[in-house]
Structure formats: C-alpha cells, structure tokens
Amino acid sequence: MCEFVVDGAGVCQDKRLWTAGVRKPRNIKFEWYLSLYDRCPMDYTWWARSEPNNGLPYEENCVEIVDVDELSSPMYLWKDAKCREELCFVCEINSRYC
To answer: Which of 47, 57, 69, 97 could be 75's S-S partner, Cβ–Cβ 3.0 to 4.6 Å?
Structure first.
C-alpha cells in the first residue's frame, strides 16, 4: 500500500496528496472521514516534524501527504493544510472490489 501511494504521488505536479484525515475547526483531534456521516479515530499517525502546526488562525483542518525531503530520496509524511487547496487525493478501495 505505501509503495502505491508514494508511486502515485509522482504523477501529481507538486507531489502532495489529500487523505481522508479531517478535523472540525478549533478541534484538537483529527479523524478519518469515511463518508459524510461515518468517521473513525486516527489511531495511527505519521506527522512531519512540528506537525500538525494548525496554521493560525486555525485554518489547517485537513491532512495531506507531502514529500518532506525534496533533495534526496522521497520521504512522505503528513502535514495539516487548508482544506480548500486543490490537490490530488488518495482513496481507499474495499478489497472485495479489486
């Protein structure tokens, strides 16, 4: 799975991808949004150093995967970002449909 996400990031111009990680404004905890009505806790995280940093005034409420080491081999970690940015995205596909 991780290799697929990293390989897929290369097709996006700036190598940034949205995940389903979201938090409500002014909330501390991020959650996985599985649909409009279904959410689950974020038990696993892979934040970049000093992230999430909240981007005052509390506007960074979505989770992106970004290459944090552009000079050498890719290293993709999570950052919080403004949800209104247009980026490529990652979707989970139920394995029974693959």
So the answer is: 69
**Tell me: the pLDDT tens digits for 62-74?**
999 888 776 666 7
**C-alpha closest to that of 79 among 58, 89, 64, 59:** 64
Both tokens assigned to 19:
């995940």
pTM of the predicted model over 0.85? no
Concatenate the DSSP letters of all residues of 27-69 into one string.
-S--EEE-SSS-EEE-----BPTT----TTTT---EEEEEES-
Report the C-alpha gap between 70 and 72 in whole angstroms: 6
Per-residue pLDDT tens over the stretch 78-87: 999 998 888 8
